Amino acid sequence: MTDKLIAKGLKINGIVQGVGFRPFVFQLAKKYNIKGNAANTSEGVLIHAQGLPEDISAFCRDIEIKKPPLAHITEFLSCPEPVVEYSRFSIIKSKAGKAASTLISPDVSICRDCLREMMDPLDPRFGYPFINCTNCGPRYTIIDNIPYDRPNTSMKIFPMCKNCQAEYDNPENRRFHAQPNACPVCGPQVKLCDKHGNEIKTTDPVLKTAQLLKSGNIVALKGLGGFHLAADAQNQDAVSCLRQRKAREEKPLALMSYNLDIIKKYAQIDLEDEILLNSIQCPIVILKKRYDNKTNHLIAQAVSPKNNYFGVMLPYTPLHYLLLSCIPFTALVMTSANISNIPIAIDNNQAFKNLAGIADYFLIHNRDIYLRSDDSIVRNMAGSPRFLRRSRGYVPTPIFLKHKLPQILACGAGMKNTICLTREKNAFISQHIGNMDNLETFDFFKLTIEHLKRILDIKPEIIAHDLHPDYMSTEYALAYQGDVQKIGIQHHHAHIVSCMAENHIQDPVIGLSFDGTGLGTDGHIWGGEILISEYHSFTRAAHFSYLPMPGSSAAIKEPWRMAVSCLYHAFGKKLWDIDLLFLKNIEKNKLKILLDMIDKDINSPQTSSLGRFFDSIAALTGIRTHASFEGQAAMELEMEAENNISHLTMPYDYTWTSEQPRQIMLKPIIQGIVRDIQAGCPVSAISSRFHMTLICLVSDLCGIIGKETGIKQIALSGGVFQNAILFKGLISELNRKGFKVFTHSLVPCSDGGISLGQAVAAWAVLKN
């Protein structure tokens, strides 16, 4: 019999530690009568397996295709070994040393097994809001250092009871080496407090919280990666009060419902949406509202005003499930617990201090959050999930690269900041950090860098940054101490490289980099760029013609300024004679001051931004002259096009200059839109024509550039591509012209993905 035995050594890398991988291997070994052992090491999981050839083959196959839900294999190496005497298969003690090549699991939603146990009155963990196992629960937000062992997590202050320890030590138990393992006897606890921090005595804090929410109160709820502000989403007064207290005028608020059946009552869901909602990452998913008499009353109008969509998620922590099962709710508002652009609260004392003017009550617990992580946001577009925000549930899972990179820190952009650290073929992009316009966010940015460097054991040799000297991220990079090389990467080139990197593109591409802002190499603000891009360099092939931004950043919050700039660009001083309601609604003195600013170049930087052009058309057509949040005007313009019932949409006239780089002329488009407004065309039809114009002109211009260069690959990046009409329309037209179109599906197309492009571009610049 021994003559028929073979032995193999397996080395498995990726997310394979702390996710139930070795117990899974142990069970497979029992199934296939494999003898040997498995151990965690600094190089990954090492397995010595001995058995019959067909059993070894099945064992290896099942490891790859039936791995635990949280496991992700990036390397599976196998080599023959001499046959030795093993009496059984065992899990041996982990070898010491930092797990420098292993990966840390993200925080993930509660698994079906834990949910079943929590809802079972006969189970020891019945109703316990911190139930978890190797298949679910907190990871990234509770780890302070490597290796990922309990003493290096926020669970270190909770010694396991006898029963939990027995589970932890048993390789046949799904809580074997589950570092956050706990129960009501030994683990974290919740308590309900008033806004002054005084505990409210109650036998069931979660039930009491649900009752308070049902009564119209606002509750600050400590979750997995930070606090939420919760309110009953059916209660118009409660939601309006939350908006008023949080100073969040119109930006949509996220919703959480108990199950899909409830969500289907107020939102449209297809199969792809269901998959996302039910995934272990449990992101916020953008869903179209249902509009009928039976459903209009289900969600308060104040949740998502003047918007065709809701952002919805299912419960992802045990506490969420308990809260939503206590009392029937159609949905709870679950919005980030912060003020303005300050990062979300994670510490109990900090929450009482910052949120006392917003929340009426606080449901807190005593398990510390080491690193905040906002909810991820995803939208299904053109057949794939697209990130609007990549954070909780996905971080710190790396983006896997085509080439090995040195250890690089990329500091990201000024808006929607993330940072990126690279190690060999792994690019680790941080959770959402936010807009870098205050010291609190800058502190969070620095904390995240140090935290990720520590838990990933990365010591950067290269620092990549944006060209804008006033970005806090750039200032940090330039002040970085140590023996490192510092490389500035142009904003829109970084956008395109991020798309190239996640798609493993090797050859040059025509890059469409459309967004709101980014410093160009000529000192102007870019944002409507067609680039011939490689990893290490780019050429500006074309761009939208420049417009002044009167008032600079004020023009972002006040789109009417860009609309005036457009009219002046298209009509000059004749704009005074144009019969437009938009102009009649502006005080003449105010209009004169703005035109003087443009004429005399006073605080009116030049921009080629397509995002600003969208804003201007939204203002011209009367959709929105002032924005309460970034991108609002452009979003509402897109929604008008969605509402267009005409299928015969013709583009406006368009043209571009012949000199290099070509300039896409805005004048004929603006003049065509003004004619339609004066003719009384519906705003929905004008918006639809505007979108069609952009699709036609960009695809036609790409066709010419493609013929000139021989390039047949196109990469789309930049925040404007969150616009589904433009995104899907361009893909369709470019495909029709024979181009292969690459898009983002692993990182956001917005500035949240730019750190990846910075890192890869910096490597390529040095390499070349």
Report on this model:
With 768 residues, the chain is α/β, with parallel strands linked by helices. Among the domains are: 2-91, Alpha-Beta Plaits; 112-169, no CATH class; 190-365, DHBP synthase (Alpha-Beta Complex); 544-654 and 665-693, Tetracycline Repressor, domain 2, CATH 1.10.357.160. It is 33% helix and 20% strand. It has 23 helices and 28 strands. Strands 6, 7, 8, 9, 10, 11, 12, 13, 14, 15 and 16 form an eleven-stranded mixed sheet that branches. α15 (559-571) packs across α20 (667-678) and α21 packs parallel to α22. It is globular and about 90 Å long. The model has no long low-confidence stretch (mean pLDDT 95).
Mind telling me which CATH architecture of one domain this is? Answer: Alpha-Beta Complex
Question: What shape does the CA trace take?
Answer: globular
**What is the number of helices?**
23
Instruction: Report the biggest beta sheet as strand number plus sense, adding barrel if it closes.
Output: 11 strands, mixed
Summarize model confidence as the mean pLDDT: 95
State Rg: 28 Å
The poorly predicted ranges are: none
Helix-residue proportion: 25-40%
Percent in strands: 15-25%
The first-level CATH class name of one domain: Alpha Beta
Quaternary assembly: single chain
| Gap between N and C termini | 58 Å
What class, by secondary structure content?
A: alpha/beta
